[in-house]
């Protein structure tokens, strides 16, 4: 399966928005608070994951990108149960809406649980404030 | 053939189907109207009228000669051009307008399977009377179109047909002359259109008129055409009605034909000329629809030929299918079975859905092995680069944060660690630095903060200022930390305390991190702040001396009983001052049996081993002796030594070994030990005690330590005899000493 990219990848587009002097409305600002899993998944970009959807479809692939809604783009996918989903045979890349994901199976050694716990604590603290 | 004006109009209308799906939607209303008219307004009279017209254009037969087939004669009768992929002029196909209408209706039709079926039946009945099956005619038209397009290829494929004949499904020949069965006219069956096509040829009196012109192997040619129409490789097609051929053989034939067919088709690329599309007769409201097909034209030039038959085949649906068909090789026709033939009247919307499915299916069928088709994607380029960037920008706006380190904590920390590790590896291994991709979330420097509550001196209450950036705070809801101390559950209370301390610890670590980033001058300030914080945590731990009876109630021990508490302590230890850390070590050692007992399930004590052993390594001899005393003091109420109990616990035995090892290190080093009085005696006593206990304990009861120091044996050598040492060596599974001669014992 594809490994990590060797080229620095910008997750998203435009340059520093500070220059534009955009002010974020309050609601949008608050949205930035729930960034833990977005941050977490960013660290997993390039790794192989298995995404199980709420419709019981399990897709194995390389995590290509993720956004703040936890929409996932997978490349080089394969369905873990091809006989059941033959229509997926020819699909190479896919975009999965975050709300339909039930589980994401991760490689255990790619996850720093202590760091994750710390991040969760910080976020909880932030949200309380 | 030049397109006559009348058919042109119809053509234009029909060509509307050609337009991409988006355009189709624009036409839908018209289609629906026509469809409705067709479905509900048409009656036998009109049909008869059409039928009457049917014999009219046989004179156009000769024009069809370029098709070079007998079908031309048959086709000539077909008044309506099926339009679409008329690569060639449709001679006299436009003669009948009603039929085009009829066809059109079918194109735009809804799922009126029953109706078409009924119609077919009607037609079938009529056929006897009139001798013309309109549907068949239409089919013939379509067929004709396809055939015409394939005219060039037909010649080439004739050989193939011959082969076919040789391979020879006798059913083919036979079927040609059989009467069209009701079955064949069934719309569902006619999905394949093959059945219908065959039927047309057979039951048509007009055909009969031209039957003389039939070549020796009309069936093969027809089958050839069918092939070209794209029934290639369609094993899955339900074609119960290949009257001419057995359904099984037909697909097989197709499969055989498929590969040779394709290249040949490509070999003779007929430049796709959809002149009709560009016809100035386009109605204004349709003109927009025709704009888009034009871009397809150049592409179709290369791939049109193989796809044309496909397009043709689809009859009424072909217009809409055309664009995708252009982009998908005929391999996609496997899915044809899912598309009802033109006989089936589909609602325009349904039509569209089917076409979409077809498109997708075709694309998919092209790449069964996941080789992405290089053909253009009809949905690509819907958004320009600028538009995409704009959407992304809007999304990124939400991600702006003024403190990316905090909000993006996990990723930032993870990335730093990764970089550090790679830098180390680079230094060690000299490997090329692999830059891990850094995913940047934009952050802004400063945010304007609007105070939503403005307090004006002397006013009653508060004046709330509300802006879009900070909406009005309706109430001053302040979160008061619940006093969970009264919860009653010790464990919960302990956990609550631990979490609070953890937050403090995180702050400490944050301060540490900031300190490391800043220049030296500011370090003392941070260090002070840090030590202050650490002191607070230490106070919160409430470490104090307690007796063995009070162990369960001691708060620090309670903290240590929980895995999280152990982790907290382990993380805190490096930050603690020396005395504080020692205090913890002493407490742990003192209550080791209790802790070991409580840790039986969790087995998380080893997490403390690392920091504690480091601590041990810095102790003085006297301190060491003190700690060891804790282990050698017999437990209250029993003669058992904590020492002995440590043998059964991984952490315990590891700690013991670490202590002993440090002592040995201190002794063997040349550093002045500055022992207190009686220290050495205590030391030797301890060593003897350990040795004795070790030798008494059965090997199976001895747990393997986390780390076995190498100098233990030499320690024992100082005081013990060889025999004992050997026994201990075996038990502890130490590596044997380098040379026994060197040993003093």
From TrEMBL, chain A:
Pfam families: LSM (PF01423)
This protein's UniProt keywords: mRNA processing, mRNA splicing, Nucleus, Ribonucleoprotein, RNA-binding, Spliceosome
One Gene Ontology MF term: RNA binding
GO biological process, one term: mRNA splicing, via spliceosome
Keyword Coiled coil listed: no
Subcellular location: Nucleus
Chain ranges of the Sm domain: 36-110
Statement: the UniProt record of this protein carries the keyword Ribonucleoprotein: yes
GO terms under cellular component: catalytic step 2 spliceosome; Lsm1-7-Pat1 complex; P-body; precatalytic spliceosome; U4/U6 x U5 tri-snRNP complex; U6 snRNP
Role, per record: Plays a role in pre-mRNA splicing as component of the U4/U6-U5 tri-snRNP complex that is involved in spliceosome assembly, and as component of the precatalytic spliceosome (spliceosome B complex). The heptameric LSM2-8 complex binds specifically to the 3'-terminal U-tract of U6 snRNA.
Listed PANTHER family: SNRNP CORE PROTEIN FAMILY MEMBER, U6 SNRNA-ASSOCIATED SM-LIKE PROTEIN LSM2
Assembly behavior: Component of the precatalytic spliceosome (spliceosome B complex). Component of the U4/U6-U5 tri-snRNP complex, a building block of the precatalytic spliceosome (spliceosome B complex). The U4/U6-U5 tri-snRNP complex is composed of the U4, U6 and U5 snRNAs and at least PRPF3, PRPF4, PRPF6, PRPF8, PRPF31, SNRNP200, TXNL4A, SNRNP40, SNRPB, SNRPD1, SNRPD2, SNRPD3, SNRPE, SNRPF, SNRPG, DDX23, CD2BP2, PPIH, SNU13, EFTUD2, SART1 and USP39, plus LSM2, LSM3, LSM4, LSM5, LSM6, LSM7 and LSM8.
Family from the record: Belongs to the snRNP Sm proteins family.
Name this polypeptide is given: U6 snRNA-associated Sm-like protein LSm2
